Amino acid sequence: MKVAIFNTKNYDRQFLEAVNVNHSHELFFLESLLSQNTASLAAGFPAVCMFVNDQADATILDTLASNGTRLIALRCAGFNNVDLARAVELGMTIVRVPTYSPYAVAEHAVALLLTLNRKIHRSYNRTREGNFSLEGMMGFDLYGRTVGVVGTGKIGLIFAQIMKGFGCQLLGYDLYPHPNFVELGGKYVELPELLNSADIISLHCPLTPESHHLIDQRAISQMKPGVFLINTSRGALIDTKAAIQGLKSKKIGALGLDVYEQEADLFFKDLSEQIIQDDVFERLLTFPNVIITGHQAFLTQEALQHIAETTLSNITDFEQGCFLKNEVKAQ
Ligand code: NAD
Which of 21, 70, 76, 176 has the highest local Cβ count within 10 Å? Predict the structure, then answer.
């Protein structure tokens, strides 16, 4: 099948080409993000493959459908960037990669937490400059601390398992509680109680209309002073301006982000020669207790292999009219 693959980087290409030996699709790699301006590049392609910051809103889907696209293959889990209702109206099929490596993302959340707590980012810079002073480097033992896990699905559960290994107490909040979390020794509570009791909060729920700005000024006001907040899920779960206020007032003791509300304008590109115009993002970078990584939590060899295998299998299943186990359906 002819597939237009938007937003590709070298590492995507490497894994997709290797796995395609078993599928023989015609893969066309495009560096551009899928947007209104670039949708016409997929003219004549029955399948379009897209990633987290590509857009497939109603207008873009209209353009794709009118040019012959019937399948949108997301090479990620989240599908908040696709207008599912419009896709149904247009008779388009949407497939995704529901899980590629929950370990990759959970481990990255832990990496952000450990780095912030033990000030590894500051220590790295200091020792390179011959500054071995320990002033300002104090952390705390994770052992015995209370960790709040918001969203206890695949990634949240693994994060909880790792934190349990550190000897932490686990609190969970989820719309659909998972027995495995309770078996781990975790306790489900309502969100206000989790916010109120956790020393560390890590977000692992999807971005939906209900979870948009789940962490806003009100939620932050309910948190423990000095709370560590980690978000590897989706940027808009946090109202960034409220988080900045929380950092300024020291309510938030540290903030670790792999995702950011307006990341589509920034992430996955080398902007090091440019002046970044996003003042909110730039303000975040001024805090010594904030670490931002550019949506790299998924980026492990295992995850890229799974993404390539599942994406190409999804496309093959669609082409052969097989049952689509990874189809995304409008609710
Ligand atoms: P999952 O579907 O297995 O788990 C999500 C959990 O969140 C479910 O248990 C669900 O019931 C719960 N949930 C849904 N809405 C909620 C709400 N409003 N409040 C509380 N809980 C809610 O998904 P997963 O594989 O664990 O992935 C979680 C998220 O991680 C994805 O939605 C995606 O946004 C993000 N993600 C990020 C990266 C990255 O590279 N940073 C990579 C993959 C996934």
Answer: 76
**Adjacency order of strands within the sheet including 187-188:** 187-188, 169-173, 146-150, 200-203, 227-231, 252-257, 290-292
Active site (annotated) includes residue 108: no
In terms of phi and psi (left: phi > 0; alpha: psi -120 to 50; beta: otherwise), the region of 150 is beta
Ligand 1 atom showing the smallest separation from residue 99 Cα = 25
Q: Among the atoms of ligand 1, which is closest to the Cα of residue 153?
A: 4
User: What tens-digit pLDDT sequence spans the chain (331 residues)?
Assistant: 999 999 999 999 999 999 999 999 999 999 999 999 999 999 999 999 999 889 999 999 999 999 999 999 999 988 989 999 999 999 999 999 998 899 999 999 999 999 999 999 999 999 999 999 999 999 999 999 999 999 999 999 999 999 999 999 999 999 999 999 999 999 999 999 999 999 999 999 999 999 999 999 999 999 999 999 999 999 999 999 999 999 999 999 999 999 999 998 899 889 999 999 999 999 999 999 999 999 999 999 999 999 999 999 999 999 999 999 999 998 7
CB 266 within 8 A of CB 294: yes
CA–CA distance, 121 with 91 (Å, rounded to integer): 49
Tell me which residue has its CA closest to atom 1 in ligand 1: 153
For ligand 1, whether the C-beta of 175 sits within 6 Å is yes
Query: Is 261 one of the annotated active-site residues of the chain?
Result: no
The verdict on pTM exceeding 0.85 is yes
Instruction: From the candidates 23, 204, 295, 306, give the one annotated as an active-site residue.
Output: 295
